[in-house]
Amino acid sequence: MLAFILTRLGQSVLVMLAVSLISFIMFRYVGDPVASLVSQEASIADQEQLRERLGLNDPFYEQFFRFVWNAIQGNFGISYRLQTPVAELIMSRLPATIELAMTSALIALVFGIVLGVFTALNRKNPFAAGIMAFSLIGVSLPTFLIGIGLIYVFAVELQWLPSFGRGAVVDLGWWRTGFLTETGLRSIILPAITLSLFQLTLIMRLVRAEMLEVLRQDYIKFARARGLSKRAINFSHALKNTLVPVITIAGLQLGSIITGALITETVFQWPGIGSLFLSSVAVVDVPVMAAYLIFVGFVFVIINLIVDILYYVVDPRLRIGGTAKGH
Amino acid sequence: MTDITPSAPKGRIGKIIDSDVFYSYRTSPVAIIASIIATILVLGALFAPWIAPYDPFNPRTLNLMNGFTPPMSESFTGNFFLFGSDHQGRDVFSAILYGSRVSLMVGLSAIMFAMVLGVSLGLIAGYRGGLTDTVIMRIADVQLSFPSILIALLIFGVARGIIPPSQQESMAIFVLIFAIGLSDWAQFARTVRGTTMVEKQKDYVSAARILGVKPIFILIRHILPNVVGPVLVIATIGLALAIIAEATLSFLGVGVPPTQPSLGTLIRIGQQFLFSGEWWILFYPAVTLILLALSVNLLGDWLRDALNPRLR
């Protein structure tokens, strides 16, 4: 298992280097870093001097390694637009995105699994059929329309919930949370539902399909023959075995969570890093774009690593083989 | 003894009506409804200049007195608006016709671009094998695990940094097509590569090779026809995704320029008036987008089932 984790770690480092290379090329060659730093009156000699001082005349690999070394230390340069360090900007926006993503992941997992089990066990129930039909809409509607629809119903017509922003936040020193105030909690409901809907329907349909598959297996029949209670069969025997594919898909869908968060943050004017990235794209604020790319790559690598390790925890068959062949 | 009468030779149309695919179309109500809706929307977009009662993007014909007219009613100046008008007195119905034109044009071009790129790379990877194959498929893997909207946004941002500001407006649509197309090619490449690897082992390909046919002709004349079915399915479903991607990017404000609004831009504009009660500016473009994406998607699903020999 240790060997497996070490190999995966090595691969992760390689992936991160590739992502850094792309960000670096973007950082270095899109727009002129010097032109964005000096005033228009600066003479060519001044610009050359600054170029030399910033090390922009050094060989490519030297600049790249300096970029990576700085990134490891959390230094991503200074935003062209806001003139503040990019790392600071990202850190101030990060809590909002993490709280939103976590809340929606929780909603998607809990409701996805519960509804999936429910629809699998009650296939003839008209209510379950209704849920299945509804889930088709969740898969096929674009995220931003779901968000707008929710705003229209719950914020404009019913006026129950706020439609934008994060509400009041409490500063915990290193983390500004919206979970501790009433407006904060009310503000997160609509964005979290919007972001979770796609995942929720996906997980639900998957759990349902897997449950139906597993319930046909011999060991379930045997458990029934032994006279175990329905609850024990359904939940401790059947549900457990549906979780491997759920983990895989939930892990693979991370990309859609990241874009979903970007869109959701825009619709609800949520002050997270997705909306920060979007406003940077609009004005070509390259340092922020590069840092966001590295951040997304990092999250990808970490989640994939966790998913791979979770396989071992959930599926004992993988542990017997020692070094498994991946998936 | 059974009487075998040779059936009369059929014309081209007769052959189509007799085919399996047409039979599966006739017996699938979903496919029929989806294709009717898609046809209406495509025709509306195609003939927008003749159908649209107003020219929504000619500032001279706009009258601010017509602003915020509700659907199915007349404005102060006596003009009739089927779907209402927006803040500038622009007819929402005409804007939708022109908007779906832009949406469809961008979606179709993007998917064509993705198809040509993906099919060529897939053919090359499958036929050459070895290092070429590894490199192309590794890039495709990375591409598939990375969200396509994010790739499109990055390409868009980079293009903005490279293209001089004076040309950005006119280049925006091409950048958009390039960005969406480039984020969708991997699906094509994967499918085509798989089929190519199977087909190139077969005797007819060896025969062609022994006869001295050039690889490029073998790929186009002999192997390409085998992948037409799956490629068509991926392209149809991909078209729906490309339309939604375009709408999303335009909604985020990085898509087509405001002088040529697509359905996504119209939704972005309409969103501003959601709170003041002018729901129609948002509602009708949104419904059009959903109908368009959904009907194309359902057609793709049907095509996949109809062309899949295992399900027959």
UniProtKB/TrEMBL annotation, chain A:
Q: Which residues form the signal peptide?
A: none
- Pfam families annotated for this entry? BPD_transp_1, BPD_transp_1_N
Q: Name one GO biological process term.
A: transmembrane transport
Q: Fetch the InterPro entries from UniProt.
A: BPD_transp_1_N, MetI-like, MetI-like_sf
Q: Where is the ABC transmembrane type-1 domain?
A: 94-311
- Which residues are listed as membrane-spanning? 12-30, 100-121, 133-155, 188-207, 243-270, 290-314
Where this protein primarily resides, as one coarse class?
membrane
Q: How does it sit in the membrane?
A: Multi-pass membrane protein
**Entry keyword Transmembrane helix:** yes
Spell out the subcellular localization from the entry. Cell membrane
UniProt lists the family membership as follows:
Belongs to the binding-protein-dependent transport system permease family.
**What is this protein's record name?**
Peptide/nickel transport system permease protein
From TrEMBL, chain B:
Q: Where is it mainly found? A: membrane
UniProt keyword Ribosomal protein present:
no
**Any idea where this protein resides?**
Cell membrane
**Transmembrane segment boundaries:** 30-52, 102-124, 144-163, 170-186, 231-254, 281-303
Domain ABC transmembrane type-1 residues, every copy:
100-300
Per its UniProt record, what Pfam families does this chain match?
BPD_transp_1, OppC_N
Q: How the protein sits in the membrane? A: Multi-pass membrane protein
Q: Which domain of life is it from?
A: Bacteria
For this UniProt record, give its keywords in alphabetical order, as a comma-separated list.
Answer: Cell membrane, Membrane, Transmembrane, Transmembrane helix, Transport
The Gene Ontology biological process annotation of the record reads: transmembrane transport
Which segment of the chain is annotated as a signal peptide? none
Q: What GO terms fall under cellular component here?
A: plasma membrane
From the record, what ranges are coiled-coil? none
PANTHER family cross-referenced by the UniProt entry = ABC TRANSPORTER PERMEASE PROTEIN, OLIGOPEPTIDE TRANSPORT SYSTEM PERMEASE PROTEIN APPC
Q: Which family does it belong to?
A: Belongs to the binding-protein-dependent transport system permease family.
Q: What is this protein called?
A: Peptide/nickel transport system permease protein
